[in-house]
Design brief:
Blueprint (H helix, E strand, L loop, with lengths): L1 H19 L18 H15 L5 E5 L10 H7 L10 E2 L5 H8 L9 H4 L7 H8 L3 E3 L7 E3 L12 H4 E5 L5 E6 L4 H19 L3 H30 L4
Antiparallel strand pairs: 1-2, 3-4, 5-6
Helix pairs in contact: 2-8, 6-8
Length: 241
């Protein structure tokens, strides 16, 4: 129940952040993009997404069974990632009533299917933004939720992952300092957030890895074809003066 309430509050933040946050503030850290092709990282990210994000935020353009593309079997998906009455072939929706959500938060919780693609800015990719944002929460008793964020000042979202990271405080020079440890150390938490963001990026375009791999083969084919065409053209015209 506590996780569900925290998830409801998180919805308000992402609604606001999707339209109000800019490229200002602290520099964005670079997301470890190699994780997007790491199947184990994507699987861990999917688990975090389902447990911490999917309480309120749908991914209505993604089906659970599409996670077979990241190495999970249908049995694993059904046993570990599908809850309540959903089926493996269903889209990743939530049960929040849109009218009630609007009454509670002022707007419906945004869909996260393409959140990593929509947050790109002058400082970097959408994945860079999310990677920095999810690691930038700190305690702020002046805020209604008790939390603030270095990337998005006056954020409305509570830190739903605080049990993993612990509690940070804003120290001198606006540097974050760990005031209370969580279940993970700093390195482990950064790795977990990298996994989560990798999944969010993959979810925005599940076929991106296959597309990039196919693109390499297409370029190689065109290069070989160019050489053959050039040699054939030389042969045809060698006796023409």
């Amino acid at each position: 129940m506590k996780k569900l309430i925290a998830g409801f509050a998180a919805a308000l933040c992402l609604v606001t952040s999707a339209v109000a946050s800019g490229d200002g503030g602290v520099p964005w850290d670079k997301f470890p993009k190699e994780k997007v092709t790491d199947m184990a990282a994507l699987q861990r990210g999917a688990k975090l997404f389902v447990n911490y994000c999917l309480n309120c935020h749908a991914a209505a353009f993604m089906r659970y069974n599409r996670m077979r593309d990241i190495g999970l079997t249908e049995e694993q998906i059904k046993a570990n990632l599908v809850f309540a009455s959903e089926k493996v072939g269903d889209t990743m929706k939530v049960s929040i009533d849109p009218k009630e959500a609007k009454d509670w938060f002022g707007a419906n919780p945004p869909d996260l299917t393409v959140i990593a693609r929509s947050r790109a800015g002058s400082q970097g990719s959408g994945a860079d933004y999310l990677y920095t944002y999810l690691r930038g929460f700190y305690r702020d008793e002046t805020r209604p939720t008790g939390w603030n964020n270095t990337v998005f000042p006056a954020v409305g979202m509570p830190h739903v992952l605080w049990e993993l990271q612990g509690e940070q405080r804003l120290g001198e020079g606006h540097k974050l300092e760990l005031a209370k440890p969580g279940t993970m150390n700093a390195k482990e938490y950064d790795e977990a957030i990298g996994d989560l963001v990798a999944y969010l990026q993959w979810m925005g375009e599940p076929g991106q890895t296959q597309r990039q791999r196919l693109g390499v083969w297409v370029l190689a084919f065109l290069a070989i074809f160019f050489v053959l065409a050039w040699r054939l053209n030389s042969t045809f015209w060698k006796d023409v003066k």
